[in-house]
Amino acid sequence: MYVKDILGGKGDEVFTVRREATVVELAKVLVERRIGAAVVADGDTVVGVVSERDIVHCIAELGAGAGNRAVADVMTTDVKTVSPDTTIDEVMGLMTQRHIRHLPVLEDGKLAGIVSIGDVVKDRIASVEREASQLRDYITA
Asked: What are the Cα distances from residue 3, in Å, to 17, 107, 123?
């Protein structure tokens, strides 16, 4: 299974945010869209990822003033990305090794989607269910 298979099922929509947006503006959008992270983009270039975890760290450090900070101040800039041809096993390894939950997907240098740990878990559960069904069919046949 590949990243492109996940994107084929969930779609390639990615919410991007400007560096200048405030943490409060971003938090409102994350809640409205029911997502855990946004890609920070400068045109077609990915310059960061900002997640719920980044917001929590910002609040812990700055307290009430955190909401007025720019996304650029709290985003993760060492962004790891994957391609549509990256295997799900590679994605799981990267997420586990780097302790990250969201990976932007780049195709020919352009943002083509995002995969989350939830997408990977959902894919794994579906795979295990398919295997179990095939084994049941084999045993009863």
From this structure: 23, 11, 10
